Structure prediction request, 499 residues.
Amino acid sequence: MFCKGCVAREQAAQAHLAQQEEQHRVLQHEEIKRQASRKIRWSYIIGVLAAVFYSGFGLIGAAEGSVPLPLALVLVFGGPYVIWSTYWGLVWYWPYWKKFVRSFRQSLSGWILIARPFTWLLILMFYVAFYFSIPLSIAIYYGIFGGGIYQFRRHLRLASGRGPLEAAPDKRSRNLKIGAGIAIFLLLSFSLSTWLRHERIARQLAFSQSSATAVSYVSDQAYVLDSVTAKSINDLCAQANDKYKVQIAVFTVASLNGTTIQSLAQNLLQQQSGGGTEGRTVIILLVPKNRAWRIQYGNGFGATLTTSDIQAIGNNAVPSLKAKNYGAALLTMVSGVIAALEREPGLKNNGMAQATTPIPKGVKSKLDQMHPGWKLAEMSDEDRKTCFNKNSKYEPTLIWGDFDGDGKQDYAAIITYGNSWAVIALLARGTGYQAFELFAPSQSYNRAPDVLDVVPKGGQWGITAHKLQHESIAMEYCEASSVISYYENGAFHRFATED
Prediction:
């Protein structure tokens, strides 16, 4: 009886052990299926994000013409595949890499106790230079050349329970999160670099297309100018070269990189002048990061361009620089230099009041479409003395500024055509301008305003004390009332100031 009881208990213990092993095997199998399903879900998320990013870049670039169609197709289809397959490469290789790093770290444990400088340097170099770069490189090549697809299909079998039963590592969940994080970081890095490159190419193409038949006087290496403003500046420089035989070159750079703005401007002047400072060359240099600007000019101007002139030009541009409206600041500087050149002997027209600021071609073209044969209204010398600030950077009947708050350079002018007149605002839109007629002859006003001026942002004007959110246009009558025209909700609104 005793032996029979022992046998029965032994059989019961073995049956219980077999039952536990079966339960453990089932749980292990379910854990493998759960982990495989989680990896598949992450691959779907990463693939969708990559498809959205790269499809957007490719399609937008192809539509704008800044990205060739073959390259756009590569971005749309190839970009998501690279990111998706890299994720599966990391899923495969990361556990092996962690095991290698752990053994490597253990092998160095004796060296660490010695604490030699070379040992610490070796460890630092390994972790900084190789900890992520080596597995990432292997994962990219393995995943792209078929490994990603193989791992995806393998995990589909595991998630469905049709795959072989494998041991589930204890830290597989953590490794999965690390691999997914690296893949998402790679996706964001590639996407950001592609977007920055797309923006840079788009700006360069937009400007090169606008000035394909002319010399480029603008080098925007800091990428602070939109295509419309860059074209306006280039047009002004081209007209200065045609009219005054003066080469005005505008440069923006990202940073000074340890040099001084004086030496950089001098080097640019020598390059533009063919190795010397003699000649009629003006360099306008802007460094937004260092909040620095400089106007450097050759010594072929005599008394036409002086240090005091340069200081006055810079002071006029300071408000735009403080507002980080760099396009407006550079336009002000270029216009100031041209205004100073107008004082040069032989360039004035018998002392007659004329506009010294060349009008951008886009503005001219728009006005030509609206009123063929137009010209800027002229202001008499007497009115100039009594109503116009001689230190103003603007013309009496031509002003510029950001009149709609979008950061682009806009214009406003009083023009005459035939026996009529009009005040026209031209707002920068894309590669051209949208025109708004602010004022025209009526029963209340049968005479054109005498002068235009720019009302600064933040001021309160008129009997309603309207606070201005951006620059506005003031239309003034000498020794009489003024009218403010303010852009809001897609249209200009007018209100009068006190007499």
